[in-house]
Amino acid sequence: MQKFENVDVLAALEQIMRQHTAFYQNDFDIDKSIIHRDAASDQAVDKALLWMSRPSGTYCFRERDVFLKGTRQHNTWKFYGEQTRDKILACAVELTGTQGGTIRGNLYELDYQQHFRHVVEASQPVSVNRLFYEHGTRDIPDGQYFDGSPDRVLGNFLRYEAQPHDPAVL
What we know:
By secondary structure, this protein is of the alpha+beta class. The chain is 31% helix and 36% strand. It has five helices and eight strands, in the order E-H-H-E-E-H-H-E-E-H-E-E-E. Strand 4 (89-99) and strand 5 (102-110) form a beta hairpin. The protein is globular.
């Protein structure tokens, strides 16, 4: 597998997408917004992404979310290994910073089928969902219903994030 160091991440991924993705190329607009958001983050977990290009679109996910069983990201990554015969080009993306307004990083080419099997074997169950609000967070058990309503103490709901039982394993 090849490694590309200190590249313009968006330009490199777009070049792969244009050569491999025939339909729904506008999926890459979503990927770009994810990469911009994560490049601006101060959280290390946001700097490790998994990206795939397929004949009918692209996906970009935080790596940790792919390794959490039952998440949308995990289910999507598994779907293309289990239920399609599409040729998938996949990369691990390591965001390292920005230079002159360009998002820089390292790309690691993945053998998608091998990586998919690794995801199936190494994935961790979700223990709780962490709900993020304007003024703090709270955890609820996985499977407990929540609807994104404001919390009287914590304010407006912003987002949620699945958490494993043992975060150190990820």
